[in-house]
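B., you asked whether I could sanity-check this one before it goes into the benchmark set. Here's the sequence:
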Amino acid sequence: MSTPSETSHDNVTASRGANGLVIRSAIVAALGGLLFGFDTAVISGTTGSLQRVFDLGGFGLGFTVATALIGTVIGALFAGIPADRFGRKNVLFAIGALYFVSAIGSGVASESVAGWWFFMVARFVGGLGVGAASVVAPIYTSEISPARLRGRLVGLVQFNVVLGILLAYLSNWLVAQTLSETIAWRWMFLVEAAPALVFFLLVFTLPESPRWLHAKGQQDRALSVLARLTRSERELAAETAELEHSAEAELSMPHEKLFSRRYRKVILLAIAIAAFNQLSGINAVLYYAPAIFEMAGASGDVALLQSIVVGLVNLVATMAALVVIDRFGRRRLMLVGSIGYVISLGAVTAAFFTGGPEAGMSSGASALVLAGLILFIAAHAFGQGSVIWVFISEIFPNRVRAKGQALGSFTHWFFAAVTSWTFPGVAATFGGGAAFLIFLVCMVGQLIWVLKVMPETKQVPLEEMADTLSLPKAIAKEG
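And here's what the prediction gave me:
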Protein backbone atom coordinates (compact mmCIF):
# COMPACT_ATOMS: atom_id res chain seq x y z
CA MET A 1 0.00 0.00 0.00
CA SER A 2 1.37 3.44 -0.91
CA THR A 3 2.22 5.90 1.79
CA PRO A 4 0.79 9.45 1.69
CA SER A 5 4.15 10.81 0.59
CA GLU A 6 4.41 8.25 -2.20
CA THR A 7 0.89 9.05 -3.36
CA SER A 8 1.68 12.77 -3.32
CA HIS A 9 4.87 12.14 -5.32
CA ASP A 10 2.95 10.06 -7.86
CA ASN A 11 0.36 12.81 -8.25
CA VAL A 12 3.04 15.43 -8.87
CA THR A 13 4.75 13.21 -11.42
CA ALA A 14 1.48 12.43 -13.15
CA SER A 15 0.64 16.12 -13.19
CA ARG A 16 3.86 17.00 -14.99
CA GLY A 17 3.44 14.13 -17.44
CA ALA A 18 -0.17 15.05 -18.10
CA ASN A 19 0.70 18.64 -18.84
CA GLY A 20 3.37 17.53 -21.26
CA LEU A 21 1.02 15.09 -22.98
CA VAL A 22 -1.74 17.66 -23.39
CA ILE A 23 0.63 20.23 -24.86
CA ARG A 24 2.40 17.73 -27.11
CA SER A 25 -0.88 16.30 -28.37
CA ALA A 26 -2.25 19.77 -29.08
CA ILE A 27 0.93 20.70 -30.97
CA VAL A 28 0.82 17.54 -33.11
CA ALA A 29 -2.86 18.08 -33.93
CA ALA A 30 -2.09 21.69 -34.77
CA LEU A 31 0.49 20.51 -37.34
CA GLY A 32 -2.55 19.49 -39.34
CA GLY A 33 -3.35 23.20 -39.37
CA LEU A 34 0.16 24.03 -40.60
CA LEU A 35 -0.32 21.67 -43.54
CA PHE A 36 -3.79 23.17 -43.98
CA GLY A 37 -2.24 26.64 -44.43
CA PHE A 38 0.65 25.41 -46.55
CA ASP A 39 -1.57 23.41 -48.92
CA THR A 40 -3.95 26.33 -49.29
CA ALA A 41 -1.29 28.93 -50.14
CA VAL A 42 1.32 26.94 -52.06
CA ILE A 43 -0.52 27.19 -55.38
CA SER A 44 -0.19 31.00 -55.36
CA GLY A 45 3.42 30.65 -56.57
CA THR A 46 2.62 28.25 -59.39
CA THR A 47 -0.23 29.87 -61.35
CA GLY A 48 1.98 31.22 -64.15
CA SER A 49 3.68 27.87 -64.67
CA LEU A 50 0.36 26.01 -64.58
CA GLN A 51 -0.97 28.25 -67.36
CA ARG A 52 2.11 27.55 -69.45
CA VAL A 53 2.42 23.82 -68.76
CA PHE A 54 -1.25 22.95 -69.24
CA ASP A 55 -2.02 25.69 -71.79
CA LEU A 56 -4.76 27.22 -69.65
CA GLY A 57 -6.79 30.34 -70.25
CA GLY A 58 -8.24 32.46 -67.50
CA PHE A 59 -11.28 30.24 -66.93
CA GLY A 60 -9.18 27.07 -67.02
CA LEU A 61 -6.74 28.46 -64.47
CA GLY A 62 -9.56 29.59 -62.19
CA PHE A 63 -11.15 26.15 -62.34
CA THR A 64 -7.79 24.49 -61.66
CA VAL A 65 -7.12 26.65 -58.61
CA ALA A 66 -10.70 26.17 -57.36
CA THR A 67 -10.44 22.38 -57.45
CA ALA A 68 -8.80 22.29 -54.03
CA LEU A 69 -11.50 24.57 -52.61
CA ILE A 70 -14.17 22.19 -53.86
CA GLY A 71 -12.39 19.37 -52.06
CA THR A 72 -12.17 21.53 -48.96
CA VAL A 73 -15.92 22.17 -48.90
CA ILE A 74 -16.66 18.45 -49.26
CA GLY A 75 -14.03 17.47 -46.68
CA ALA A 76 -15.43 19.95 -44.16
CA LEU A 77 -19.01 18.83 -44.77
CA PHE A 78 -18.43 15.10 -44.30
CA ALA A 79 -15.42 14.85 -41.94
CA GLY A 80 -17.65 14.73 -38.87
CA ILE A 81 -19.09 11.35 -39.92
CA PRO A 82 -15.83 9.32 -39.83
CA ALA A 83 -14.66 11.36 -36.83
CA ASP A 84 -17.70 10.15 -34.88
CA ARG A 85 -17.58 6.59 -36.22
CA PHE A 86 -13.87 5.77 -36.30
CA GLY A 87 -12.42 8.27 -33.83
CA ARG A 88 -10.60 11.56 -33.98
CA LYS A 89 -7.14 9.96 -34.08
CA ASN A 90 -7.89 7.69 -37.05
CA VAL A 91 -9.16 10.64 -39.07
CA LEU A 92 -5.97 12.57 -38.26
CA PHE A 93 -4.05 9.63 -39.78
CA ALA A 94 -6.18 9.90 -42.91
CA ILE A 95 -5.57 13.67 -43.13
CA GLY A 96 -1.80 13.14 -43.08
CA ALA A 97 -2.10 10.55 -45.85
CA LEU A 98 -4.28 12.86 -47.97
CA TYR A 99 -1.74 15.68 -47.71
CA PHE A 100 1.11 13.35 -48.67
CA VAL A 101 -0.70 11.88 -51.69
CA SER A 102 -1.75 15.36 -52.85
CA ALA A 103 1.79 16.74 -52.63
CA ILE A 104 3.33 13.88 -54.59
CA GLY A 105 0.51 13.72 -57.14
CA SER A 106 0.55 17.48 -57.81
CA GLY A 107 4.32 17.48 -58.33
CA VAL A 108 4.57 14.52 -60.71
CA ALA A 109 1.63 15.27 -63.04
CA SER A 110 2.62 14.99 -66.69
CA GLU A 111 2.42 17.94 -69.09
CA SER A 112 -0.65 16.77 -71.01
CA VAL A 113 -4.42 16.92 -70.89
CA ALA A 114 -4.46 13.68 -68.90
CA GLY A 115 -1.79 15.18 -66.61
CA TRP A 116 -3.97 18.24 -66.05
CA TRP A 117 -6.86 16.07 -64.88
CA PHE A 118 -4.46 14.06 -62.72
CA PHE A 119 -3.17 17.30 -61.22
CA MET A 120 -6.67 18.50 -60.38
CA VAL A 121 -7.54 15.18 -58.75
CA ALA A 122 -4.40 15.47 -56.61
CA ARG A 123 -5.33 19.03 -55.60
CA PHE A 124 -8.88 17.88 -54.83
CA VAL A 125 -7.47 15.19 -52.52
CA GLY A 126 -5.41 17.84 -50.73
CA GLY A 127 -8.55 19.95 -50.40
CA LEU A 128 -10.30 17.03 -48.70
CA GLY A 129 -7.46 17.00 -46.17
CA VAL A 130 -7.72 20.75 -45.59
CA GLY A 131 -11.47 20.56 -45.02
CA ALA A 132 -11.18 17.56 -42.71
CA ALA A 133 -8.35 19.21 -40.74
CA SER A 134 -10.45 22.33 -40.19
CA VAL A 135 -13.05 20.07 -38.52
CA VAL A 136 -11.12 17.38 -36.68
CA ALA A 137 -8.01 19.18 -35.40
CA PRO A 138 -10.02 21.73 -33.34
CA ILE A 139 -12.41 19.01 -32.08
CA TYR A 140 -9.57 16.75 -30.97
CA THR A 141 -7.71 19.56 -29.25
CA SER A 142 -10.82 20.86 -27.47
CA GLU A 143 -11.61 17.38 -26.16
CA ILE A 144 -8.18 16.73 -24.65
CA SER A 145 -7.69 20.23 -23.21
CA PRO A 146 -8.69 21.51 -19.76
CA ALA A 147 -11.17 24.40 -19.88
CA ARG A 148 -8.62 26.89 -18.51
CA LEU A 149 -6.28 26.30 -21.47
CA ARG A 150 -8.67 25.26 -24.23
CA GLY A 151 -8.78 28.57 -26.06
CA ARG A 152 -5.00 28.82 -26.20
CA LEU A 153 -4.47 25.22 -27.27
CA VAL A 154 -7.23 25.10 -29.89
CA GLY A 155 -5.91 28.46 -31.07
CA LEU A 156 -2.65 26.69 -31.93
CA VAL A 157 -4.48 25.26 -34.94
CA GLN A 158 -5.14 28.76 -36.28
CA PHE A 159 -1.58 29.84 -35.44
CA ASN A 160 -0.26 26.92 -37.48
CA VAL A 161 -2.60 27.73 -40.38
CA VAL A 162 -1.12 31.22 -40.48
CA LEU A 163 2.41 29.86 -40.10
CA GLY A 164 1.75 27.36 -42.89
CA ILE A 165 0.63 30.17 -45.23
CA LEU A 166 3.78 32.16 -44.50
CA LEU A 167 6.00 29.08 -44.92
CA ALA A 168 4.34 28.36 -48.27
CA TYR A 169 5.15 31.88 -49.51
CA LEU A 170 8.76 31.60 -48.29
CA SER A 171 9.15 28.06 -49.66
CA ASN A 172 7.85 29.14 -53.06
CA TRP A 173 10.32 32.03 -53.13
CA LEU A 174 13.26 29.82 -52.14
CA VAL A 175 12.39 27.15 -54.71
CA ALA A 176 11.99 29.79 -57.42
CA GLN A 177 15.40 31.22 -56.58
CA THR A 178 17.05 27.79 -56.58
CA LEU A 179 15.53 25.85 -59.49
CA SER A 180 14.72 26.60 -63.11
CA GLU A 181 11.21 27.74 -63.99
CA THR A 182 10.47 24.50 -65.84
CA ILE A 183 10.67 22.35 -62.69
CA ALA A 184 10.35 24.86 -59.83
CA TRP A 185 6.55 24.64 -59.77
CA ARG A 186 6.75 20.85 -59.26
CA TRP A 187 9.01 21.17 -56.23
CA MET A 188 6.77 23.85 -54.72
CA PHE A 189 4.18 21.07 -54.36
CA LEU A 190 6.59 18.22 -53.59
CA VAL A 191 8.07 20.08 -50.60
CA GLU A 192 4.81 19.52 -48.72
CA ALA A 193 5.29 15.75 -48.72
CA ALA A 194 7.99 15.95 -46.02
CA PRO A 195 5.93 17.69 -43.29
CA ALA A 196 2.90 15.56 -44.27
CA LEU A 197 4.89 12.38 -43.60
CA VAL A 198 6.18 13.76 -40.29
CA PHE A 199 2.62 14.63 -39.23
CA PHE A 200 1.38 11.14 -40.16
CA LEU A 201 4.10 9.48 -38.06
CA LEU A 202 3.55 11.77 -35.06
CA VAL A 203 -0.15 10.90 -34.93
CA PHE A 204 0.95 7.44 -33.71
CA THR A 205 2.05 9.12 -30.47
CA LEU A 206 -1.35 10.70 -29.74
CA PRO A 207 -3.96 9.33 -27.32
CA GLU A 208 -7.52 9.01 -28.58
CA SER A 209 -10.02 11.62 -27.37
CA PRO A 210 -11.34 10.48 -23.96
CA ARG A 211 -14.71 12.03 -24.71
CA TRP A 212 -15.03 10.02 -27.93
CA LEU A 213 -13.98 6.84 -26.12
CA HIS A 214 -16.54 7.45 -23.38
CA ALA A 215 -19.27 8.15 -25.92
CA LYS A 216 -18.45 4.81 -27.59
CA GLY A 217 -18.83 2.89 -24.33
CA GLN A 218 -15.09 2.44 -23.76
CA GLN A 219 -15.15 3.84 -20.25
CA ASP A 220 -12.00 2.06 -19.05
CA ARG A 221 -9.92 3.41 -21.94
CA ALA A 222 -11.43 6.87 -21.49
CA LEU A 223 -10.51 6.85 -17.80
CA SER A 224 -6.98 5.68 -18.62
CA VAL A 225 -6.48 8.52 -21.13
CA LEU A 226 -7.97 11.08 -18.73
CA ALA A 227 -5.53 9.93 -16.04
CA ARG A 228 -2.68 10.81 -18.40
CA LEU A 229 -4.19 14.17 -19.40
CA THR A 230 -5.21 15.52 -15.99
CA ARG A 231 -2.99 17.16 -13.40
CA SER A 232 -4.09 15.34 -10.25
CA GLU A 233 -6.47 12.73 -8.86
CA ARG A 234 -8.86 15.53 -7.90
CA GLU A 235 -8.93 16.87 -11.46
CA LEU A 236 -9.30 13.33 -12.80
CA ALA A 237 -12.30 12.75 -10.54
CA ALA A 238 -13.88 16.04 -11.64
CA GLU A 239 -13.34 15.31 -15.36
CA THR A 240 -14.72 11.79 -14.95
CA ALA A 241 -17.79 13.05 -13.11
CA GLU A 242 -18.46 15.61 -15.85
CA LEU A 243 -18.15 12.95 -18.55
CA GLU A 244 -20.52 10.56 -16.75
CA HIS A 245 -23.04 13.31 -16.03
CA SER A 246 -22.98 14.38 -19.67
CA ALA A 247 -23.38 10.76 -20.83
CA GLU A 248 -26.39 10.23 -18.56
CA ALA A 249 -28.02 13.39 -19.88
CA GLU A 250 -27.44 12.34 -23.47
CA LEU A 251 -28.74 8.80 -22.90
CA SER A 252 -31.95 10.21 -21.46
CA MET A 253 -32.80 11.85 -24.77
CA PRO A 254 -33.91 10.13 -27.95
CA HIS A 255 -31.44 9.79 -30.82
CA GLU A 256 -31.64 13.09 -32.64
CA LYS A 257 -29.80 14.74 -35.47
CA LEU A 258 -27.89 18.01 -35.42
CA PHE A 259 -30.64 19.87 -37.26
CA SER A 260 -33.22 19.84 -34.51
CA ARG A 261 -34.94 22.52 -32.47
CA ARG A 262 -32.71 21.79 -29.48
CA TYR A 263 -29.57 22.85 -31.37
CA ARG A 264 -31.02 25.73 -33.34
CA LYS A 265 -29.25 28.40 -31.29
CA VAL A 266 -25.76 26.91 -31.59
CA ILE A 267 -26.31 26.13 -35.27
CA LEU A 268 -27.09 29.79 -35.95
CA LEU A 269 -24.09 30.90 -33.88
CA ALA A 270 -21.75 28.60 -35.82
CA ILE A 271 -23.12 29.63 -39.22
CA ALA A 272 -22.93 33.32 -38.32
CA ILE A 273 -19.31 33.37 -37.12
CA ALA A 274 -18.18 31.17 -40.04
CA ALA A 275 -19.96 33.28 -42.67
CA PHE A 276 -18.73 36.57 -41.21
CA ASN A 277 -15.19 35.18 -41.16
CA GLN A 278 -15.09 35.00 -44.95
CA LEU A 279 -17.40 37.93 -45.69
CA SER A 280 -14.63 40.06 -44.20
CA GLY A 281 -12.72 39.38 -47.43
CA ILE A 282 -9.79 37.67 -45.70
CA ASN A 283 -9.31 34.95 -48.31
CA ALA A 284 -9.59 37.45 -51.15
CA VAL A 285 -6.82 39.49 -49.53
CA LEU A 286 -4.59 36.47 -48.87
CA TYR A 287 -5.05 34.94 -52.33
CA TYR A 288 -4.88 38.17 -54.30
CA ALA A 289 -2.67 40.40 -52.14
CA PRO A 290 -0.07 41.04 -54.89
CA ALA A 291 -2.83 41.88 -57.39
CA ILE A 292 -4.49 44.22 -54.88
CA PHE A 293 -1.24 46.08 -54.28
CA GLU A 294 -0.67 46.30 -58.02
CA MET A 295 -4.19 47.71 -58.38
CA ALA A 296 -3.09 50.31 -55.83
CA GLY A 297 -0.12 51.28 -58.00
CA ALA A 298 2.72 49.11 -56.67
CA SER A 299 5.14 47.37 -59.05
CA GLY A 300 5.28 43.57 -59.17
CA ASP A 301 8.38 43.22 -56.94
CA VAL A 302 7.13 45.77 -54.42
CA ALA A 303 3.70 44.09 -54.36
CA LEU A 304 5.34 40.74 -53.52
CA LEU A 305 7.33 42.28 -50.68
CA GLN A 306 4.20 43.99 -49.34
CA SER A 307 2.42 40.63 -49.40
CA ILE A 308 5.18 39.13 -47.24
CA VAL A 309 4.74 41.99 -44.76
CA VAL A 310 1.04 41.17 -44.60
CA GLY A 311 1.89 37.51 -43.89
CA LEU A 312 4.27 38.47 -41.07
CA VAL A 313 1.70 40.77 -39.47
CA ASN A 314 -0.81 37.93 -39.67
CA LEU A 315 1.56 35.66 -37.76
CA VAL A 316 2.49 38.20 -35.06
CA ALA A 317 -1.13 39.21 -34.39
CA THR A 318 -2.18 35.56 -34.15
CA MET A 319 0.54 34.95 -31.54
CA ALA A 320 -0.67 37.94 -29.55
CA ALA A 321 -4.24 36.65 -29.59
CA LEU A 322 -3.21 33.20 -28.36
CA VAL A 323 -1.55 34.77 -25.33
CA VAL A 324 -4.70 36.58 -24.19
CA ILE A 325 -7.66 34.58 -25.56
CA ASP A 326 -8.27 32.66 -22.31
CA ARG A 327 -7.90 35.79 -20.19
CA PHE A 328 -9.73 38.37 -22.30
CA GLY A 329 -12.30 35.95 -23.69
CA ARG A 330 -13.59 35.16 -27.17
CA ARG A 331 -16.17 37.94 -27.34
CA ARG A 332 -13.75 40.72 -26.41
CA LEU A 333 -11.27 39.63 -29.08
CA MET A 334 -14.09 39.56 -31.62
CA LEU A 335 -15.13 43.07 -30.58
CA VAL A 336 -11.60 44.44 -31.01
CA GLY A 337 -11.25 42.66 -34.33
CA SER A 338 -14.62 43.90 -35.60
CA ILE A 339 -13.76 47.51 -34.84
CA GLY A 340 -10.40 46.99 -36.57
CA TYR A 341 -12.20 45.56 -39.60
CA VAL A 342 -14.47 48.59 -39.92
CA ILE A 343 -11.62 51.10 -39.59
CA SER A 344 -9.24 49.27 -41.96
CA LEU A 345 -11.80 48.39 -44.63
CA GLY A 346 -13.13 51.93 -44.46
CA ALA A 347 -9.64 53.29 -45.11
CA VAL A 348 -8.98 50.91 -48.04
CA THR A 349 -12.39 51.64 -49.56
CA ALA A 350 -11.81 55.39 -49.27
CA ALA A 351 -8.35 55.07 -50.82
CA PHE A 352 -9.69 53.27 -53.89
CA PHE A 353 -12.61 55.67 -54.34
CA THR A 354 -10.64 58.89 -53.80
CA GLY A 355 -7.09 58.00 -54.85
CA GLY A 356 -7.69 58.45 -58.54
CA PRO A 357 -7.76 55.81 -61.28
CA GLU A 358 -6.45 52.56 -59.80
CA ALA A 359 -3.64 52.17 -62.35
CA GLY A 360 -2.44 55.68 -61.51
CA MET A 361 -3.34 55.88 -57.84
CA SER A 362 -1.50 58.61 -55.92
CA SER A 363 1.37 57.59 -53.66
CA GLY A 364 -0.60 58.72 -50.62
CA ALA A 365 -3.60 56.57 -51.53
CA SER A 366 -1.32 53.63 -52.31
CA ALA A 367 0.30 53.97 -48.88
CA LEU A 368 -3.16 54.12 -47.30
CA VAL A 369 -4.07 50.83 -48.99
CA LEU A 370 -0.95 49.18 -47.57
CA ALA A 371 -1.57 50.58 -44.08
CA GLY A 372 -5.24 49.66 -44.24
CA LEU A 373 -4.55 46.08 -45.30
CA ILE A 374 -1.91 45.64 -42.59
CA LEU A 375 -4.44 46.82 -39.99
CA PHE A 376 -7.06 44.57 -41.61
CA ILE A 377 -4.84 41.50 -41.33
CA ALA A 378 -3.96 42.36 -37.71
CA ALA A 379 -7.65 42.81 -36.86
CA HIS A 380 -8.54 39.50 -38.48
CA ALA A 381 -5.73 37.55 -36.83
CA PHE A 382 -6.41 39.01 -33.38
CA GLY A 383 -10.19 38.54 -33.66
CA GLN A 384 -11.93 36.21 -36.11
CA GLY A 385 -8.85 34.25 -37.11
CA SER A 386 -8.06 33.19 -33.54
CA VAL A 387 -11.62 32.84 -32.26
CA ILE A 388 -13.60 31.03 -34.96
CA TRP A 389 -12.34 27.46 -34.51
CA VAL A 390 -12.18 27.76 -30.71
CA PHE A 391 -15.73 29.11 -30.52
CA ILE A 392 -17.25 26.54 -32.88
CA SER A 393 -15.46 23.64 -31.17
CA GLU A 394 -16.86 24.76 -27.79
CA ILE A 395 -20.52 25.59 -28.35
CA PHE A 396 -21.86 22.21 -29.52
CA PRO A 397 -22.70 19.48 -26.97
CA ASN A 398 -20.48 16.37 -27.00
CA ARG A 399 -23.06 14.31 -28.85
CA VAL A 400 -23.08 16.51 -31.96
CA ARG A 401 -19.74 18.31 -31.68
CA ALA A 402 -18.18 16.68 -34.73
CA LYS A 403 -21.25 17.37 -36.86
CA GLY A 404 -21.44 20.94 -35.58
CA GLN A 405 -17.76 21.54 -36.33
CA ALA A 406 -18.35 20.14 -39.81
CA LEU A 407 -21.26 22.54 -40.33
CA GLY A 408 -19.15 25.51 -39.24
CA SER A 409 -16.24 24.45 -41.45
CA PHE A 410 -18.52 23.84 -44.43
CA THR A 411 -20.05 27.31 -44.00
CA HIS A 412 -16.57 28.85 -43.72
CA TRP A 413 -15.27 27.16 -46.87
CA PHE A 414 -18.44 27.76 -48.84
CA PHE A 415 -18.16 31.50 -48.28
CA ALA A 416 -14.38 31.27 -48.88
CA ALA A 417 -15.11 29.86 -52.32
CA VAL A 418 -17.75 32.50 -53.04
CA THR A 419 -15.55 35.46 -52.07
CA SER A 420 -12.43 34.05 -53.75
CA TRP A 421 -14.22 33.36 -57.03
CA THR A 422 -16.15 36.65 -57.17
CA PHE A 423 -13.58 39.16 -55.92
CA PRO A 424 -11.54 39.44 -59.16
CA GLY A 425 -14.68 39.89 -61.27
CA VAL A 426 -16.21 42.50 -58.97
CA ALA A 427 -12.93 44.42 -58.74
CA ALA A 428 -12.40 44.31 -62.51
CA THR A 429 -15.96 45.37 -63.31
CA PHE A 430 -16.74 47.91 -60.59
CA GLY A 431 -13.30 48.73 -59.16
CA GLY A 432 -11.47 47.86 -55.96
CA GLY A 433 -13.47 50.41 -53.99
CA ALA A 434 -16.75 48.60 -54.69
CA ALA A 435 -15.28 45.22 -53.74
CA PHE A 436 -13.99 46.49 -50.40
CA LEU A 437 -17.20 48.41 -49.74
CA ILE A 438 -19.08 45.10 -49.80
CA PHE A 439 -16.68 43.67 -47.21
CA LEU A 440 -17.04 46.84 -45.10
CA VAL A 441 -20.85 46.57 -44.99
CA CYS A 442 -20.60 42.91 -43.96
CA MET A 443 -18.21 43.77 -41.12
CA VAL A 444 -20.53 46.45 -39.79
CA GLY A 445 -23.05 43.60 -39.60
CA GLN A 446 -20.53 41.47 -37.69
CA LEU A 447 -19.90 44.26 -35.19
CA ILE A 448 -23.63 44.45 -34.46
CA TRP A 449 -23.79 40.64 -34.11
CA VAL A 450 -20.91 40.60 -31.61
CA LEU A 451 -22.50 43.36 -29.53
CA LYS A 452 -26.03 41.96 -29.56
CA VAL A 453 -25.83 38.18 -30.00
CA MET A 454 -22.45 36.51 -29.44
CA PRO A 455 -22.08 34.81 -26.00
CA GLU A 456 -18.85 34.44 -24.02
CA THR A 457 -17.56 30.86 -23.68
CA LYS A 458 -14.14 31.23 -22.06
CA GLN A 459 -13.18 28.67 -19.38
CA VAL A 460 -16.57 26.92 -19.50
CA PRO A 461 -16.23 23.10 -19.26
CA LEU A 462 -17.56 21.47 -22.42
CA GLU A 463 -20.10 19.45 -20.42
CA GLU A 464 -21.55 22.67 -18.97
CA MET A 465 -21.71 24.62 -22.23
CA ALA A 466 -25.37 23.73 -22.92
CA ASP A 467 -26.40 25.36 -19.62
CA THR A 468 -24.21 28.39 -20.28
CA LEU A 469 -25.83 28.90 -23.69
CA SER A 470 -29.32 28.20 -22.26
CA LEU A 471 -30.01 25.37 -24.68
CA PRO A 472 -33.32 23.49 -24.22
CA LYS A 473 -33.03 20.62 -21.78
CA ALA A 474 -32.90 17.06 -23.05
CA ILE A 475 -36.26 15.37 -23.41
CA ALA A 476 -36.43 12.11 -21.50
CA LYS A 477 -37.33 8.92 -23.29
CA GLU A 478 -40.80 7.58 -22.70
CA GLY A 479 -41.31 4.04 -21.47
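One thing to flag: The radius of gyration is 23 Å. Otherwise nothing jumped out at me.
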